[in-house]
From TrEMBL:
The keyword Metal-binding applies. One of its GO terms (molecular function) is 3 iron, 4 sulfur cluster binding. Gene3D superfamilies: 3.30.70.20. This is Ferredoxin. Residues 76-102 are annotated as: Disordered. The keyword RNA-binding does not apply. Pfam families: Fer4_15. PANTHER family: FERREDOXIN. It comes from Mycolicibacterium aurum. Its cofactor is [3Fe-4S] cluster. Keywords: 3Fe-4S, Electron transport, Iron, Iron-sulfur, Metal-binding, Transport. SUPFAM superfamilies: 4Fe-4S ferredoxins.
């Protein structure tokens, strides 16, 4: 059995769409202007995970964030092997670092 899901709500991002309260009314309430507030401490048991995940995924402004050991959504950071190499930052005379010449 996995650990309970943990979420937080960034109220500064909320635009009052109310989709979260529609999908997971036990975890989100709406104030008089339609802005969301998190009910409880953000701990979501496995039985309610689907409804809360639907609220998270349907939030148009991404104000709901899943917390986890490895960052949002509990995913481990991806270390890409195809990352672009660091640019050579040396410059000659009056040539700018971006290799743009006046």
């Amino acid at each position: 059995m996995s650990d309970p899901m943990k979420i937080k709500l960034d109220r500064t991002l909320c635009d009052g769409f109310g989709i979260c309260a529609k999908h997971a009314p036990g975890y989100f309430s709406l104030d008089d202007w339609g802005y969301a507030a998190l009910i409880g401490d953000g701990t979501v048991p496995e039985s309610d995970r689907d409804a809360v995940m639907r609220a998270l995924l349907d939030c148009p402004v991404h104000a709901i964030i899943e917390l986890g050991e490895h960052g949002p959504l509990g995913r481990k950071p991806v270390v890409g092997t195809g990352d672009a190499p660091e640019p050579h930052l040396a410059s000659d005379d009056s040539e700018a670092i971006s290799e743009f010449v006046r």
